[in-house]
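Methods — Computational structure assignment.
A single polypeptide chain was analysed. Its primary sequence is given first, followed by the predicted tertiary structure written as structure tokens.
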Amino acid sequence: MTITGNFEDFSLPELLQFLDQGKKTGRLCIELGNELEKNSTKKTSYIWVHQGRIMTVTNRLDEQGLTLMIAQRGWASERVISRVMQTSSCFISEPMGLCLKSQGLLQPEQLKLLFHTQVLQPICSLFPVREAFFRFEPTRTFPLGEMTGLSMTSTEVILIGLRSLRNWSSLEEKLPDPSSGLSSLMVKQPNIPLNNQEWQVWEFLDGRVSLKDIASQLRIPLVTVQQIAFRLIVVGLAEEEFMTASTSTSVLENTISEEALVETVPHSAQKSGVNQSIQKSGVSQSIQKSGVSESFLKNLVGFLRSK
């Protein structure tokens, strides 16, 4: 089924994640330029996807892009590539990059560099685009002459692209609200490689702390937390949790109360093991085990502070 739309309604990261989750196979056409202006120059990018994995990206349909890229780097001339393609049968059913590697014309590191230049750079350059039309067409045929033989999941490409994005104006309206929290969609820790700040925000994925308070606790800009939250949401690791203003505040107050309790327990109580119990098992666990009410805890904190 052909799918059409525009970036104003469906951003490229969201679109790629849709193709990844649905394990779609086909060609995604992205057309830039204002179609209402007769003299405007339209630029079209073609992203080829197999089972949700991105195989190659081109801006032409004559299967000469990869050949020119190799020739421009001086790794093999167009004439040599053409002759090898005519004499070797592997080009009939295998990606050109792997065939050239089997013929000794390309090295593994060169294939990686070609994939980065041919696939990652063009897709990342499309992330800041605000106005574009897209069309996804299912297909079982691929331009083998434009393929290195390498591929990457759409989720991995999304993370790489959004991490490197400097201008977020096109995605600004899609960022989660500062007063919202995040809930995890994963039972276990994700196997997607996250960076340090993403792991820090991941620790708050319980739907109880707002993004504003997460930023305050981690001491990083709120907009950075919103961007991280968007990344986690768009790759399917989390969902936005709308919450009342009092929810996040109560969580912070409880955290402060727990810290205050540990700091204000008398020295005699520490000797009896009370403070050790709090530090080892956590105030919340101690309350659960002993059945002590939260109001009792607050009164106890107030009493200890008055001493």
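Note: Strands lie at 3-6, 26-32, 43-50, 53-58, 132-138, 152-153, 181-184, 238-241.
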